[in-house]
């Protein structure tokens, strides 16, 4: 039984913390402390209580000591792993990120990664990560740091830029959806029962939420070669990879989509984009797939409004409260997330290959060294090493590079607190491609205004 | 007196050939043969006759033997230099390149470099350059090749890709305009007589027609540092660097402009874009500076219509005929072009530093190796070596890379005769940034149709 | 049951073919044809007969059809895998490679990789591999090619240089010895039963026979951190990693050694060299560890004389004959070699991480792109992808680079049949570090003379 | 008349300071202050007095104010240029550097760049340069810094590593000797009067004292192509490029040599090594050209003993004293050094191309980025930019890389005060190629002991 300490930063208002606790509870051979740190202390307390319920659950294999820390330093002290999963500011600020641009004709499907919303969210998040990184460097420099916060790329960038020796990677499940989609392809084209996602091996590379699969195999079957035939059947009506959902269920649940964008991109570029369609569309010119809600509907996905998120969030908090107080039982079961599997591998319990976000040190030779890229990595005892990815087609490299370099520009602008440089990233966002420079400036200033309380401590100037 | 042979490919219908002949006539210590090869044989003949008149002119210092070759091989045989300056197809095809996109709301200021027009022009030009390059490899592999044809970048790329040992570079005078503009800045801000362009030293880098000056000096004065003060006075009303013209003369002459775009970009990025504004605007999102003719006017430039070019061209041909027949005297005088200066340097007559287009071998570390970039180069005896350029700001690197990689994609698509890959470059052109994918396809097909006779020998498929 | 064809080039006179056949016989779920091609046809016939005996053996799980091909093309036709394992020329030529330099005071422990012997062996082998590569390109371009022949690096280089799209890698078991050695360290320092080699995970990188381990773990124990204490006990007397042997058994068996060189290098550089000591010493200045047989003995290893090899070889052939004729039973058992495991992974039956030789595409950022390097790779369905290795210490990078670039120089010299360039590699071999240039020339010429019959078809000039 | 301040660090006991003062006195259009800083204050005073005599000389064009500063800060304050030219420790320590290794059979021709002497000298010099660099960063960060001190490469490395924004380059006249040699080749082979060095244009690259010329032109004549014929006549007897000296004058003056090593290397590699032979031999295995004094003599050069240097130095000091006191007239004449020409170019008075030492940023794509390399650079107003060099032959790249990486290792060892890492560089010096590891350790320790007083303030440990 290996005894470890995990510092968990944030997670108070997130489903994800609970999923992680379930997975840990079901991980054999591990135990120790989970130190919860959240600026929302009641939320952390709630998680602690849920943790205790999980410990008491009969399905639980590994029991953990849950503690709530009011200081980051206390949580980090002695940590073997640090998990970061925060919501920068509140859904009110996210509402501005996502919906304010609409008056300029700019729509966002998610609004937390790139596009105007991604830039503003980065402006709030990076200064917090500067602090996390310097505290980790000071208090637990040997800990492995797992980031789940969006914007993923720029958070991971901050960690490495502030503390270059950090052992950090960014984890995201979006590529899993593409693997699930490929399971569907295998099922339909090979007339076999749908395989498990882990039976699909892929070579994916790009930036988070905009990765591309250049090679995909189920046993020795080339799955990409099956796509043209699959698309003859499903291109028009779509195909949802999520079990139990129909292709047009996206109309009621904006987290669903019909994969039509993905199929269209495959037609155009011959490689398979690997995140959910709602993410993909934000990395390309607005008029390609996200001109307005009608275009979105045509491409078989919907925009995720922040009102929808508010509803989801309050349901989740309510459920958490019920669970914390014992009025609703916890539901200890294994998820499809990989964090605990990766932790096990890092602890020396079996090699794993999975796609995560790390600084480019050669794994994507067409991206600048030091930019954060997502590729396969080998996880092994105290070691996460990127695997050299296949080159992407030139045209796709161009799309990826534009976003990667926008993020680098944005990061450099935030780091130096230079609004004009941040704006250079803002105006060059593909989702801003139909915006004139003057309008872009106006929008940028309005968006800053809307999230001002969370920026004023970090930036001297708050308009350009 | 050094005796050399220069093969001149094209130039029949161009002012430029005459300028080059004047410059050669005034170059001391050189003589030899100029072998004229043009598919328009009468045009070549006309140039030959003008050459003879130049030889007879009293101002002429060096006399040359002008010959007309009907076969490329004959022209190349024994050549020390090969000059390429062709018009691919006619102004009718160029009219389609430039004006057809207007019905989709896409305007072009020049239409021969990037944007939809640049892509179509490349589709016609690259196959011709494949032929030129293979003939040069076979017939005169040691010759120095000077390219003047647009699209400059992709022509130079073709030469090096087909014959990697070629000694070629692409020459363009657009950066000289930025140097002239800096002369104006020096004059206005230092209260001195306008300096000569050669007194301004710069570090410029980028791709042709989209280079950026990161450092500019007149003696030991930092000229970029003077720009803010200069712009306070001239940003609104503009400032034309061409002698004898007022800022708003662009209304009658589309080759003029008020440099307002250049000044605006300097405000945004802190470095000075180095080509004429009418070129620069084509490398950025349409809505930034080229939404429509009204926007153009607001930014103090006009679009160059092909009708305007037709008029200019027929005037030039008429003038050439008069000169060829002796009815109008030749006007032997030195131009501001540098080709003959560079030829002298290559012949071992003095080092020169000037900006030309060559494959990237490290001079722009942020661009992929092998892409064609424009930077300073040192010209010396049988040697043209790139000078390492200052890095560009990240945001500018991103703009340059997007265009450079579009050209790489376009080249690869043409090389492999793959229309879908060419289209991937087409739809990602910044000037197409407000175009949906379906409309882009339609436009692409229509433009191919309009230039079909010049494509059908090279491409199996002519629509996507 | 997956049906495949394996072409086996060479192997006639090698133990290794037999080991491979045993392993294949014990691999579940595979069957098909093994096409044996060897210029020594009786040897191939012998292997075919042994194959039949293996098929008849009760322990055999998978039966294979063994065929002897007299033409390479026949063997390659339809092959899924090509295995190359040849002896270039005979042991007579190897005797010259190894022993001729002794009269100049140069001793070699192995003489088949680098040093004067390695260069001469490369001169004989590369032209054969040029032929293999061009036949593979023509006949079975999709086959996976596994090389076992030494000099490993230059053979793999030839394959990729002649046919860049080849799917090839070079396999060598030397790193396994370092893993075994680390098992011993774990056993001694942790007081546990000796772990299995596969429980040790490492990050190794370098060139074949000169790789370096920068990280080594047994579960979560850092094995390199245990070395200082281990060396206090065993540095002087040595420690043999081979089961059942004492540290000084190297005196009777030159394939054994006491790992004292490895321990000394760890003291000097802080990282663990990963091949057998007898290989390592050939990559460094002669006077460091291989001044003469007495120095070798001091460092607890012996030189492998070619007489010893002759004896071993004739024993092996005799044994093969007995087995082929059924006078001696075959001994079907699983070996420690990984070839069949890698084949299974490539066929989509489970990911494997193992160290092999491939062109550098970023996995060793300090080595030139395109040089052949040995690092971990991920083996998966139709895919072998290098894993980014830790950087080596600068001083070690320097030692590795020198050898890697010597091999590149040697390869380029052989490719262009330029003896002077081959000699530039020869004279710069670390084992030649005490040789003057004139003596080096003499020795080079004498060695060429000794192996002339195998060179004269390929090189116009046979002395410099 | 441009008024500037030059801080001159060191130079007290050097001929070179006087040469520089003469050149400045003859430079039109410049004046200002020369602030002399030397730990040997009387030496600085002597130079100040000589400066005053120069000011009084009738040939002097530009008068300078010479001041002696006892604090570095005072000298640097307001400096436009900083010139560094120091002797680390005294000739006593240099005697140990050069002669102590002889008892181990290691001879050095110069002993101040690489080899055992170079390493020890670096150990003394780098800590001083750490101080200079941090003071320059603090006091005059915009000044241009010109280094003349050896070991050139590691001094320049220190400046850039401590203060990455520094504007520094290292100047060395050794390449000029190769240009002079090429003038001799032109004279002999073309039967023309010996051209001036500035008429020879070259592409040279490598590390200081070990650069290689890949292209050399006199007007449009390829000089390297003339070498084979030249060498037929002069290979055996040698050819001294220094005016007024016979090939065997090296016997009386160790600064002379017959260029036989240079010619031999050209035979072997096809490119021309560009420093004096006495420097070149130290970068290659001892037994190639520097086994012992007899070998040196055979190759037409002699070793420079430190006794010879002592004599020269005391003559120079005596002469300086005479000049300072007015007993001997100053001899104001222009030298062949380029420092003042480069200063003029940096001040915006004409472009110059010359070879200097700067960090590799792409000018030598085969060397690691950031290593200090010597190539052509363009000097212009406030700008020194490297020119992309031709690639060197692989075998030469290998020789250069080994030395460059030894220096990087040595620098890293000194920076981290890690004797074992410095030793890793020491034992891998080509001049140590016949030394066993144990003997190398002994020698290293003895050499440290001999120079201890100059090391003890910087290194905690003084033996390994």
Core attributes:
six-stranded parallel beta sheet, 464 residues, 43% helix, homotetramer, alpha/beta
Descriptive report:
Four copies of one chain form a homotetramer. Chain A is an alpha/beta fold and 464 residues long. Chain A has helices at residues 15-25, 41-56, 72-76, 91-99, 115-139, 152-162, 174-190, 227-234, 260-269, 277-280, 286-289, 293-298, 306-324, 339-346, 394-415, 419-427, 437-450, and strands at 2-10, 30-37, 64-69, 81-85, 144-147, 167-170, 200-207, 210-218, 221-222, 272-273, 352-359, 372-380, 383-386. In chain A, the strands form two sheets. In chain A, strands 7, 8, 9, 10, 11, 12 and 13 form a seven-stranded antiparallel beta sheet that branches. In chain A, strands 3-2-1-4-5-6 form a six-stranded parallel beta sheet, with helices on both faces. In chain A, a hairpin with a 2-residue loop joins β12 and β13. The longest helix of chain A has 25 residues, at 115-139. The N and C termini of chain A lie far apart (56 Å). The relative contact order of chain A is 0.14. Chain B binds chain D through residues 2, 201, 203, 215, 217-222, 347-349, 351, 353, 361-363, 365, 376, 378, 380-383, 385-390, and chain D through 2, 201, 203, 215, 217-222, 347-349, 351, 353, 361-363, 365, 376, 378, 380-383, 385-389.
Give a nutshell description of this structure.
Chain A contains 17 helices and 13 strands.
């Amino acid at each position: 039984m290996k005894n470890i300490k995990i510092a968990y930063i944030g997670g108070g208002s997130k489903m994800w913390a609970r999923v992680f606790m379930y997975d840990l509870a079901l991980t054999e051979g591990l135990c120790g402390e989970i130190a919860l740190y959240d600026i929302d202390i009641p939320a952390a307390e709630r998680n602690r209580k849920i943790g205790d319920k999980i410990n008491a659950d009969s399905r639980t294999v590994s029991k953990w000591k849950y503690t709530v820390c009011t200081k980051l330093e206390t949580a980090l002290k002695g940590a073997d792993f640090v998990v970061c999963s925060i919501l920068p500011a509140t859904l009110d600020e996210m509402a501005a990120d996502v919906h304010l641009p609409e008056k300029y004709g700019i729509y966002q499907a998610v609004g937390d990664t790139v596009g105007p919303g991604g830039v503003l969210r980065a402006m709030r998040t990076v200064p917090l990560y500067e602090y996390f990184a310097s505290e980790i460097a000071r208090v637990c420099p040997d800990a492995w740091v797992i980031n789940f916060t969006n914007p993923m790329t720029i958070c991971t960038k901050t960690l490495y830029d502030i503390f270059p020796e950090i052992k950090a990677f960014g984890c995201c499940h979006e590529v899993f959806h593409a693997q699930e989609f490929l399971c569907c392809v295998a099922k339909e084209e090979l007339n076999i029962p749908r395989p498990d996602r882990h039976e699909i091996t892929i070579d994916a590379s790009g930036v988070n939420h905009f990765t591309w699969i250049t090679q995909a195999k189920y046993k020795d079957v080339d799955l990409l070669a099956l796509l043209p035939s699959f698309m003859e059947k499903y291109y028009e009506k779509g195909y949802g990879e999520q079990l139990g959902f129909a292709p047009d269920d996206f109309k009621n649940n904006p987290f669903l989509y019909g994969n039509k964008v993905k199929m269209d991109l495959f037609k155009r570029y011959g490689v398979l984009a690997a995140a959910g369609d709602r993410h993909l569309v934000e990395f390309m010119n607005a008029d390609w797939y996200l001109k307005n809600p009608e275009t979105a509907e045509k491409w078989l996905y919907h925009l995720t409004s922040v009102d929808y998120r508010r509803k989801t969030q309050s349901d989740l908090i309510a459920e958490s409260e019920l669970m914390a107080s014992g009025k609703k039982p916890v539901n200890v079961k294994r998820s499809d997330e990989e964090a605990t599997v990766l932790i096990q591998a890092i602890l020396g319990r079996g090699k794993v290959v999975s796609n995560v976000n790390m600084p480019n040190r050669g794994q994507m030779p067409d991206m600048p060294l030091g930019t954060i890229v997502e590729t396969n990595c080998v996880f092994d005892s105290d070691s996460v090493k990127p695997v050299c990815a296949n080159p992407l087609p030139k045209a796709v490299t161009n799309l990826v590079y534009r976003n990667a370099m926008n993020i680098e520009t944005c990061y450099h602008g935030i780091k130096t607190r230079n609004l004009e440089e941040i704006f250079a990233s803002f105006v060059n966002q593909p989702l801003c491609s139909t915006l004139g420079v003057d309008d872009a400036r106006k929008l940028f200033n309005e968006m800053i205004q809307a999230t001002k309380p969370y920026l004023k401590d970090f930036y001297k100037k708050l308009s350009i």
